[in-house]
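Budget justification, computational time. The allocation requested in the original proposal was used primarily to generate structure tokens for proteins on the priority list. As evidence of use, we reproduce two of the resulting records. The first is shown immediately below.
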Amino acid sequence: MSDVGFHLAFWSLSAITIGAALMVVVSRNLIHAVVFLILSFIGVAGLYLTLSAEFIAVVQILVYVGAIAVLMLFAIM
């Protein structure tokens, strides 16, 4: 990946992750908070991909997005 592309991907993913994390805290609807939490987890997985840690990114998606966030949605429902 080119140097400019790497920096653009890193900063855009970090902005998405921080924005989604702030929306988790600010959101008054619990369902919306969980959806923003999932977006935050996906952003963190993207940050792992920019650091060339593919295994940790896949584990992040499978464990946190696939298990924890879905479990929270089931508990809310």
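The second record produced under the same allocation is shown here.
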Amino acid sequence: MEIRTFQKKDLRAVVALVEKMSDYHHSLDSTYKPAKAYGDWGGIVSEWLEDPETQVFLAEEGGGVVGYIRAGVESAPEYSSEKKIGVVFDSYVEEEYRRQGIAGELFAAALTWFKKKKARSIELNVDCRNEGAIALWRELGFREIKLRMRRPI
């Protein structure tokens, strides 16, 4: 298993993972858009390469990309006394590669990058129905700080 940064040559593989992640969330809740509703994923994902405040790490196994994590640094929310925070925007590991420590290795690479960027804390959002992801993030030291709720009208 190799953990490395996203490069232009990886675009097709990363787009495939992002589409799977998007469709998984749509399966949890139909108000999440399915992958096909986004249109040009290639253009969206390409922009990640251009943003100096974003870094994408890939897990590669047997010559193929099997997972990724997209990390960023942004201004802290108004309620925070910190100047900037790290954010895990999204992460996905192919189903057959899960529970092998890959997500933890991806996060470790992101954590090193967050430290270089001088972020003092990291936040992320996870769907409350995604029990596997919740368990993973708790194992990696995250705890709940807010609860976002929704009600249809």
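A brief technical remark on that second record: Residues 69 and 106 are 6 Å apart (CA to CA).
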